Amino acid sequence: MYIYPPIDYIEPVFRPPSEANSLILQVTNGCSWNNCTFCEMYTEPQKKFRPKSQADILDDIKRCAESLGAVRRVFLADGDAMALSFNRLKDILLAIKEYLPSVTRVSSYCLPRNLKSKTVEELAELQSLGLSLLYVGAESGNDQILAKIDKGETFDSTVDALLKIKAAGIKSSVMIINGMGGVNYSEQHALDSARLVNETQPEYLATLVLFFRQGEAHFRKEFGDDFIKSSQLQLIQEMQVLLSNLELEKTIFRSDHASNYLVLKGVLGRDKAKLLSMIDGAINQDRSVFLRSDRQRGL
Ligand code: SF4
Fold this sequence. Notes:
Layout: E1 23-26, E2 28-29, E3 50-51, H1 54-67, E4 73-77, H2 86-99, E5 105-109, H3 120-128, E6 131-139, H4 143-148, H5 155-167, E7 171-178, H6 186-200, E8 204-209, H7 216-223, H8 232-245, E9 251-255, E10 264-268, H9 272-284, H10 287-290, H11 294-297
Parallel strand pairs: 1-4, 4-5, 5-6, 6-7, 7-8, 8-9
Antiparallel strand pairs: 2-3, 9-10
The structure holds iron/sulfur cluster.
C-alpha cells in the first residue's frame, strides 16, 4: 500500500511512470526552462520555477524517515532537479543515505543545459552517493524541430549531456516524441533521433505520442504553419523508420505510455526484428488487432 509522504507538495507534481512507487522528494518547484511549446506541465502560477530551500528539503527527508517504512527509491522532483548546484545535490544525497538507508536508487529528470556546469568527476561523485538514473527528454534529434518547439537544446547539446552522464556511471533514460515534427518532418525526425540514440547508447529508451491538451491550433501557432499532424498510420510508419535505424547494444525500450497506439516493449538490439514485425503487422494487417483504440489510450 502506498503511504502518502509527509511532504507539503506544491501541486501538480509529475514523475515518470516508472517512478510510481518511489518517494517523490520535491527539491525544486516547476522547470527552470519552461518554454517547450508542447509542454503544459508547469503552467499554473504556483509552478513558477524556484528551488526549494535546502533546510526544507532536509526536514522533508527526516520526516519521511520517521513516518515511512523502508524507502527503496527516491525521485527528485520537479522538472529538473539537476538545476541545483553540485554541493546542494551532494548534501541531499548524503541526507538520503543517512536517514533513508534502504534507498537503492535516486533518480530525476535532467535538462542537458544543467549538466554544463557540472564536471564528470562531480557527477561520478553524485553517482557514488546514490544518484543512479537521469531521465532526459530529448524529444527529437532534429535541430530544426528542436528550434521550432523551443526546446533550448540541440542534437549536440543533448549528445554531450548523455555522454557525460554515461562517463559518470549514471544510467540514462531517453524520451523521444512520436509525431513531434508532424508529417513534414517525420522522416528527418526519426532518422536524427535514431542517430542521437545510437551515439549515446542509453540504458532506457521510451517513446510517447505527441498530444495537445490546448489543441492542435495552439501548437501550430508556435511550431509554424508547416505542422501537419500525423495520422495514426503515419505515426506507426515513423516508428518503423526510427526502429529500423536504431543500432543499440543493450537498451530497454518501451512505448507503453498511455498516449501510444501501438504498445512495444523489448530489449534493443536483441528484439529489433520482433518489434519491427509487430510494426509491420500494424501497418499491413488488421490494425485493430495491434493497436489501442482512442478509448484504451486513456488520455
Ligand atoms: S524542459 Fe521538460 S518540463 Fe521543462 S518545459 Fe521542456 S518539456 Fe516541460
